[in-house]
Please model this.
Amino acid sequence: MVKILHQLGHRHNWNLDCYFDNQIGDGFIFCAYSFIEGKIGTEISGYKPSQYLPISLVDLQYYGYKNSRDKGALSSYAFHPAKMEAEGTTVTEYPELIIHGIRYQENIGINKIVIPIRCEITKDILRFSSIVEKINKFISDNKKPGVEYYLTVSFTDSEIKDAEWIEKVLTLLTNINKVFDGYYIVCDQAPEYKKKISVNYDYYNNLSRIFSVLKKNKFQVIYAYANWDAIPFLALTDIDYISIGTFENLRRFNIKRFTEDVGGGPSQGWYFSEKVLNMIRSQELVKLRSNNCIDLIRNNKNIFSDTILNLAYPWANNGNNRPDVHKNYLLAISRELNEIGLKRLGNDRINYVLGRIAEAKKIYKHLYEKKVYLDEESSDYHLSSWETFLKSKLI
Amino acid sequence: MQSTTLIQDLSPEFKTHFKITEIHSINRGGQKMVFIVTKDGVKCALKLFHNFGKRDIRELEIYEKFKNLDGLPKILIVEEFNGDKVVFEEYIDGSSLQQVAQNYAGNPDIIRDLILKITSILNPIWNDGKIHRDIKFNNIMIRGNGEPVVIDFGIAQDLDGSVITTHYIPHSWDFASPEQLLNQRDQIDYRSDFFSLAIVGYVLYYQRRPFGNTLTEVQQKFMARDTSHATDVECKLNSFFKECFGFAPSDRPRDLKTLIQTLQW
Model:
């Protein structure tokens, strides 16, 4: 059964509260960008280390080295490449820095180690292989009992659409000499303008292949920085862990965030609807309400949804920084994923998700008939892509 | 079998030096000559190299490293003589699989037995990070007692982890994996041998090739990422074929244990 991990960053207290107060999710992934060295392993947002450490992973985020000043908390880690860069030091001992990152996690008592590794944008398999083999050798020689080791494997938007690169990487990762317990997969994707998730067929096909091949080769798989497009991926593969996140940078891996300054614009917030399997821009809720359609998209048995769909909810007043908006997503998507994970893998599961997509399309059609047209991100732009993709996988 | 009249191919000094009393056959190649001779009263293979190259050195290294394996030819002597490299090798008293292939037709049990024996010969070599890369009927000898011997490690490759830096496409296209035939050099690993072994099993069972009868046919099929192959529904080897004929190495069994599971019935 799939396990849900909260990807923790900005406003991580909301996620922690969701887990401890509302039983949402199964654990946490701490993103180093938001936690200075020394913080993880101490009391965080009122929760003791003994409460969260046994169910936590740490992503040290070695992905890219920023030329900008904004390195978040990354440069607070004595061994982090970002610190070397901040000090103007050339990062030459890269494998050693990775080993420091592993040791750091072991020392604070993490039992599922995420091995940090840089995002390879050069598509140089020999270089990538050389690093992987060094780390593999280190883990082989130094594996601690009771501790699991997950190698980070990142894919840029260009890489994930390159089937040849994917095959090279998969051949490397599944070689018999690999001693990793699994892989921590992060994947950039480039949604089209005014879209939140990709509709690119290669993206779905190739990322899905990565998950299924790794699972077939008996590795555990963590899908990190996942968005709700985890739905079609889980329809096809028993992914072991899928992350859920609040803000967009925790739901979409974007290498630029680690190499450049990327600012986020203001937003009044989004309503995630399990009925249409999509985010609906808060401003669109006015249209729905005015046409007496709000119940068509309302999430079931979701106290956060009930709160934010209340007429008096102050969306316009910085809605995106209100906890209920994000907790609605966390609850709805975790339920959705858990439900999918319970279905038997194969046609049963695919058909279940196809059924959910069909229901969502029906609601969009109903809205259309009622002359309510949801625009851009809030529209049904992704559903046909998911449907086509999943139908092609029916056995 | 050729007669001893061929004895003039070896000089008297040579024969005296190596105590050769009889020559049974001779096979002349571009780089070497292979004689089947009697030396010290024992029949053995004599390889006389004019140009002793990297592939020959590699092959000898493998034979030396794995000399305790019954399924590899034993090297008896390696010596220089008048500028030529001389190698005396165990004579395999038997037939090539090519010669006896028809005995296996439609019999999954003896094919499984053969495949398992070959994998047990190759497993220590795979575990050492090496691959054969040219598994085919002519490189599998069957001794008189039915035990297989794998020969010709001339294009075997050290993997140094998993990615190889040089490549060699086998001459025998009909037993090659997609990554070999399509020259995807950084995809070739021990699972390329798994693929070739499955072709060996398939051709033995069906007495026909799985992916086409010409190089062009097979290449075109592989270029379309197609490794579909006709099978009888009731063939016990279907699971083995299905798993080992995965197009990409990562689609095939990851280890020998998983491969063996496909041969259980």
User: Anything to note?
Assistant: Strands of chain B lie at 20-28, 32-39, 42-49, 75-81, 84-90, 94-96, 130-131, 140-143, 148-150, 157-158. Chain B touches chain A at residues 126-127, 129, 161-163, 165, 184, 186-187, 189-190, 248-251, 254-255 (CB under 8 Å). The longest strand of chain B covers residues 20-28.
